[in-house]
Amino acid sequence: MEIRQLEYFRAIVDAGTISGAARVLHMTQPPLSYQMKMLEEELQVSLFLRGTKKITLTDAGKTLYEQTGNLYHLVSIF
């Protein structure tokens, strides 16, 4: 897992869509989707419910979002 993947994950949640996050991150949607697939495979959980226009987080996704917020807070202190 890379910090970059966690940044991408948070950007997707904040933007509400993968394509919206891709615009904010100045990248295209396919590599962003690929990075999320790799993160899910590494964690062995689904983070998103797919098939709707807007991203919906699974319980695991909600937990990861909360925990990455804590991580960014700690990093900002140092």
Automatic annotation (TrEMBL):
<dbReference type="Pfam" id="PF00126">
    <property type="entry name" value="HTH_1"/>
</dbReference>
<comment type="similarity">
    <text>Belongs to the LysR transcriptional regulatory family.</text>
</comment>
<dbReference type="GO" id="GO:0003700">
    <property type="term" value="F:DNA-binding transcription factor activity"/>
</dbReference>
<keyword id="KW-0238">DNA-binding</keyword>
<dbReference type="InterPro" id="IPR036390">
    <property type="entry name" value="WH_DNA-bd_sf"/>
</dbReference>
<keyword id="KW-0804">Transcription</keyword>
<protein>
    <submittedName>
        <fullName>HTH-type transcriptional regulator tfdS</fullName>
    </submittedName>
</protein>
<dbReference type="InterPro" id="IPR036388">
    <property type="entry name" value="WH-like_DNA-bd_sf"/>
</dbReference>
<dbReference type="GO" id="GO:0003677">
    <property type="term" value="F:DNA binding"/>
</dbReference>
<dbReference type="GO" id="GO:0032993">
    <property type="term" value="C:protein-DNA complex"/>
</dbReference>
<dbReference type="InterPro" id="IPR000847">
    <property type="entry name" value="LysR_HTH_N"/>
</dbReference>
<keyword id="KW-0805">Transcription regulation</keyword>
